[in-house]
Amino acid sequence: MRVTVIDYKAGNLTSVLKALRHLGAEAEVTDGDVAPVENAERLVLPGVGHFAATVRLDTTGLTPAIRAAIARGVPFLGICVGMQWLYAGSSEAPGQPGLGHFAKRCAHFAESKEKVPHVGWNSLEVRAGSRLLAGVEPGEFVYFTHSYKAPVTADTAAIAHYIESFAAAVERGNVMGVQFHPEKSGATGLKILGNFLSWDAKGTG
Amino acid sequence: MITKRIIACLDVHGGRVVKGVQFVDLVDAGDPATQAARHALEGADEIVLLDITATHEGRQTLLETVRRTARELFVPFTVGGGIRTADDAAQVFEAGADKVSVNSAALTDPALIDAIGRSFGAQAVVVAIDARRDPEAADPVRDAQVFVQGGRKPTGRRVVEWAREAEDRGAGEILLTSMDSDGMRTGFDCELTAAVSEMVGIPVIASGGAGTVEHFVDVFGRGKADAALAASIFHFGVSSARSLKEELAKAGVSVRLPC
């Protein structure tokens, strides 16, 4: 299967590519070029960095191309900042709009005595019916590293708890996102990426 | 619930894992890629590879080692040693590291922390601090000093202040090594770890001195560490991360299990 990974210069893509290729995917990278997105079979938007970096999706014309691909039914996975971009925006870069596919905005963790960023392995509360997280059992852990988090809404596929409850995964139809790093979450993470790679519109994946 | 992390550390010299006491008397302890994969399989939450070769010709060897080690590793992977510029960091990331650890170069040029953080995100920057208590000072812990060159050369900087500056410049984590305890297997320096952990709002990884399960219980409790790093406890078949974590869980420490 072919996966198009979108590079918008928000950090390092090596780990994501490595994990996708390990699972047998043919992973290609597009760096601002719209054509690969227009022809994509699957799209991954990674991101370890600042929400402001997503401005590059707008300046390169990738945002409308991604919107069109999603409308065409192309399976889409956003990781970390790539997930947060699916919402209306983030207080990390208030002037920079997100895609707005999911309602509400991302925000910094509330002030508390806990350390921020939230770094480490945390468990998931998976909501029934998630296809992305199929086979993830209660008590399985995934690796997080982030200071901003997405709100819990009707589209939330999994909740995690740190300082407060937040969306660890979001999913509606062909559009999915994870706050954690499946490429760094051992066997559990590879299972989740595998679910994404086998996702199809018929629901057999 | 967030768990306390057990991080396996591989000290690498000339492309081989080595272990010594206080950075001297090095003993060969195997191939980095094999060791890293074994630690991940045996339940380590992260892998850190510290290159102690730190020579110019060693750089290419290191990048090749990082590439080989990262290939089949699906847990967080940090690389440190000899990273002097943002370009050095970029090469290490390209080779497959998720985070870099900077130490003496950041002391010489603190803006290095900002520069790497800007390009790769704060979560990718670990600032490693080699610390020694100052036995002459009124408060040996609060006045602990930052050392470089494998703990031999004092910098005149206080550990707690440097940790705070690193955070302000955008470090994502602090890796605190007690040079007094390193390799001794007599326990972490919990007082020093707690002092640093209370001073900063970012996670602190404790390092140096692990020898028993109790030492880990102690550093997660009294030492207020978010993660603990160990090399010697895992080597030569002494223990595995999984068995260590099973013991920690019995002692009430929240860890990633099963793993």
Topology of this structure?
The complex is a heterodimer of chains A (205) and B (259).
Chain A: E1 2-6, H1 14-22, E2 26-30, H2 35-38, E3 43-45, H3 55-59, H4 62-72, E4 76-79, H5 81-84, E5 107-108, E6 118-123, E7 125-126, E8 141-146, E9 148-149, E10 156-162, E11 164-172, E12 175-178, H6 186-198
Parallel strand pairs in A: 1-2, 1-3, 3-4, 4-12
Antiparallel strand pairs in A: 5-9, 6-8, 7-10, 10-11, 11-12
Chain B: E1 5-13, E2 16-21, E3 24-28, H1 32-41, E4 46-51, H2 58-70, E5 77-80, H3 86-94, E6 99-102, H4 104-108, H5 111-120, E7 125-132, E8 145-148, E9 153-158, H6 159-168, E10 173-178, H7 190-199, E11 204-207, H8 213-221, E12 227-230, H9 241-250
Parallel strand pairs in B: 1-4, 1-12, 4-5, 5-6, 6-7, 7-10, 10-11, 11-12
Antiparallel strand pairs in B: 1-2, 2-3, 7-8, 8-9
Structural write-up:
The complex is a heterodimer of chains A (205) and B (259). By secondary structure, chain A is of the alpha/beta class. Chain A has a single domain (2-198), classed as Class I glutamine amidotransferase (GATase) domain (Rossmann fold, 3-Layer(aba) Sandwich). Chain A has six helices and twelve strands. Chain A has helices at 14-22, 35-38, 55-59, 62-72, 81-84, 186-198, and strands at 2-6, 26-30, 43-45, 76-79, 107-108, 118-123, 125-126, 141-146, 148-149, 156-162, 164-172, 175-178. In chain A, strand 1, helix 1 and strand 2 (26-30) form a beta-alpha-beta unit. The longest helix of chain A is centred in the C-terminal third of the chain and has 13 residues, at 186-198. The radius of gyration of chain A is 15 Å and the shape is globular. Chain A starts with a strand and ends in a 7-residue tail after the last helix. In chain B, 33% of the residues lie in helices and 25% in strands. In chain B, 53% of the residues are buried. Chain B has one domain: Aldolase class I (TIM Barrel). Chain B is of the alpha/beta class and 259 residues long. In chain B, strands 1-4-5-6-7-10-11-12 form an eight-stranded parallel beta barrel, surrounded by seven helices. Chains A and B meet through helix 1, strand 6, strand 8 and helix 6 of A and loops of B.
